[in-house]
Amino acid sequence: MSKPNLARRVAEAAEIALTTRKYVTFIDVVTGLRWLHSRHVDTWRQGRAGTLAELAAVDEDRLLATAGLLREWALAKGLRPVDTPYVAGTRDRRELRFTSGHGQEPFRVHWLSPDLSEARVRKLTEPKVPDLVAVAPLDAWTCASCGDTGPYLIMEEDRPHCLTCADMDHLVFLPSGDAALSRRAKQESGLTAVVVRYNRRRKVYQRFGLLVEEAALAAAEERCLADEEVRERRRERDRVRRAEQDVDFRARMAAEIARLFPGCPRERAQEIAEHAAQRGSGRVGRTAAARALDENAITLAVIASVRHLDTDYDRLLMSGVPRMEARERIRERIERKLEEFRG
Q: In what order do the strands lie in the sheet with 153-156?
């Protein structure tokens, strides 16, 4: 890839992050370029990789060049640089490394918009201590210290340890599902760990629950019982608010589809927007790029619709054709349909 082309792609990925959150990080850009998936970043943050570069689809030189291009773009936009430490979710809280080289500073910078409020700036720039992370493994594993096993493992010095060897076997498990109870139990507990489990279908680590002190859990349950009615009213207001936001977002996405693809019937554009933007679906419409109405993300949503509704892609998959081969077979049909939709 030529430097001008890379600079353009870096700018596009950075612009999406800036529009969505009013600040940009190196992580935002490399995930936006699809050199890293969020699951790779999770693995790195958990302390299960020596460097982020080990998990990337490009070499360290390309990552360093990208950090430099991000800096040039951010300075031209008048963004404020803030050096932000990255710490692993391990007991030793060691500094995370982006590459094997000595200079990690270019990758740690957060570029803040001048439009950010002072309160938001303080929150972004104050030192953050990450949660300890315990993994609920799907496969058999062995503790590096005692040779035993267990339902959860803690990474220390890039090796898995059981809760007993990590001095955390006095904690009890609180499953996800009740946000107020989880938040309060974490506040009450002197030692906590976020439990994650790998979702093979979505290929990401998902939050599974918390490990907290038993007394803290009991105290949190008492607090929740005391204001249960108030929290239920608040949850209902939040449900209404989210539903209104979803309706507005789907309408804006449908309008953008109609603008980019004027030949697409209005009902079809609405169906694509409703399907792609469904909350909790993990589809392209829920990505940061789609929420910013990025042209590439909107196009991907239309392509997904065409793939499943206007080609025999699903039949090919059911007949045993590999996914990438099936996509190659239908590529020309998709292009013809997109040209039709573009009018």
A: 159-161, 153-156, 133-135, 193-199, 204-213, 171-175
Q: What is the pLDDT of residue 115?
A: 87
Neighbours of 21 (CB within 10 A): 17
- Residue 282: predicted pLDDT: 62
Q: What is the pLDDT of residue 288?
A: 65
Give the list of residues 6+ apart from residue 19 with CB closer than 8 angstroms, or none.
Answer: 292
Which residues of the chain register pLDDT less than 70?
1, 127, 280-292
Model pLDDT, residue 123: 81
Chain position carrying tokens 């490009």? 58
Instruction: Give 98's DSSP letter.
Output: S
In sequence order, the 6+-apart residues with CB closer than 8 A to the CB of 32 are 12, 13, 14, 16, 17, 289
Does the pTM surpass 0.70? The reply is no
Angle at the Cα of 209 from the Cα atoms of 208 and 215, rounded to 5 degrees:
165
Q: Whole-angstrom Cα distance, residue 131 to residue 153?
A: 15
Question: Residue 208: what pLDDT?
Answer: 92
Rounded CA separation 115/92 (Å):
36
Strands of the sheet containing 23-25, edge to edge, are 23-25, 109-112, 80-83
> Which stretches does DSSP call E strand in the chain?
23-25, 80-83, 109-112, 133-135, 153-156, 159-161, 171-175, 193-199, 204-213
pLDDT at residue 220 in the model: 94
Q: What secondary structure letter does DSSP report for 319?
A: T
Q: CA distances (Å), 254 to each of 190, 214, 269, 283, in order?
A: 48, 49, 5, 15
pLDDT reported for residue 283:
65
Q: Which two tokens stand for residue 292?
A: 């910013």
The first and second tokens of residue 102, run together, are 């000595």
What ranges in 114-227 are assigned the alpha helix state H? 118-125, 179-188, 214-226
For residue 310, what pLDDT is reported?
93
What's the token pair of residue 135? Answer: 């993994």
